[in-house]
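Async update (no meeting this week)

Hi team, since we skipped the sync, here's where things stand on the single-chain job. The sequence we agreed to prioritize is pasted below, unchanged from the tracker. I ran it this morning and attached the output directly underneath so nobody has to dig for it. Comments welcome in thread, and please keep replies under the output.
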Amino acid sequence: MMAYVEVHWSLQSVFPVLTALQLLPLAFVGLVMAQRSEKTGIWMAIAGSTAELLLAIYLYANFEQQQSSMQFAEFASWLSPLSYHAAVDGVSVLFILLSTLLLLLVLIYGLTFRHPLEKKELAVILLIQSSLMVQFTSMNLMWFFLASTLQLVLVGYLLKQRSTSAQTDLAMSRYFQFMAVGLLLLLTGILMLGWNHAHAHGSWEFDLYELARHPIPFDLRSVVFFLLFYGLAVRIPLFPLHGWFPLVAEHGTVAIAGVLLIGIKVGAFGLVRFVFPLLPETVMQWQIYVMAFATAGIFYAALLALLQTNLRRLLAFAVVSHTSIMIIGLFSLEQAAFQGSLLLAVNYGLAGAGLLFVTGMIYRRTNTLSLNKLGGLYDRLPLVGIAFFIAGLSIVGMPGTPGFDAAHLVLEAAIVRFGALPSIAAALGNVIAAGFILFAFQKAFLASGTGQAPYSEIPPAQPVERLITTALVLILLVTGFYSEPWMELLDASLQPLSALFNHHG
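Output:
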């Protein structure tokens, strides 16, 4: 691990852009709360989120893609072992761009609500954005954990506030049970890492580089690996730790919370940032078992998706199924597989967000997401239907979408590492996925409607809804046909990680 530390050490920043990314949303929290009306508050929140996206673009524009070192590093030694150490590589930059874009779309989507987002809810969304910036920039595992806890509690608040079902209590109960267990596992694993450092060197430490300099004893490695892995897998969500998600999707959420939960793959980021560099031998030891569960998860979730009559539950199982493909890529432990898996995470974030926004638009007009009661919506909502179709194809990984190149990289790497069987299984899972996505599109948009209200009474898409759907369609198509910049962004940053596994292999 010393070689990884030396190659991947941080280049310091002149301008504290990472601190600005973390603190800018907090400044706009105060401005939002100072407004007298919710309408003014949401425009202030949109302004803040736009400024955050521009700052993320500045970060991307000034990032040196040929450097394998972490960049824009910021240090503060106070309050050890909670010392402040922030830095980014291409992986971080990619996730920062994704999260700032989706948070801006979430706030714009809020303009379409019959009951405007309250100032407290706007403040919560901005706080979530700040917590995400901490998670994507921190090199300290304890800061990552604290920001994760804050984010999940705040998302739970939004779930509760904007529930659309009488069974909200059950959904919230499952959400907090699973998340609490995941956070407890994650915290226990982090504390064991800190204790190991204290036992060997007399001081507690949670900084990634300090921990990577000192090997973990053999008898602790598997325990720490599973604590960290399961703690993050709950959030991804990965089979068989996904039980909270279909319930929350059906009963406890609107599109906003869903985007914040699954559109931004913090769990996948945590694996690449912390678990793989700290425990390479253990990752290789258990990779075949993780791959087996992921392969089973592809078919399990895909078959359950085919049985669903509720559109949100169907999309929830689609997410679980395709997340398993991403995990197969990550645990292939090769450069191309890392690139493909992280691009899949971004693809699922964009496509999943698009599908969730569309379901929200449908629900507001029909008061149902039952596929047996929907149909014929394309005549009234053609642009919404096109957005659903393209986002669904992107989930499947069709040519022209960002999932295409990413899925091929994953499948090729899986063949090299595991042989043909897992790749065939993943490909068959994609075929099933195409089936249930196209089935949902046909039932909701093309089939004859049997809903309670005449479809002539369904209002057409609002200008804001057209803006959101058009933006998502264009982003998916542009990134699909022009994926080279994102490949290049990840390439040098992932070289030290892939070299680490080549060395141990």
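Quick observations from my side:
The chain has a mean pLDDT of 83.
The chain is about 75% helix and 5% strand.
Reply here if anything looks off.
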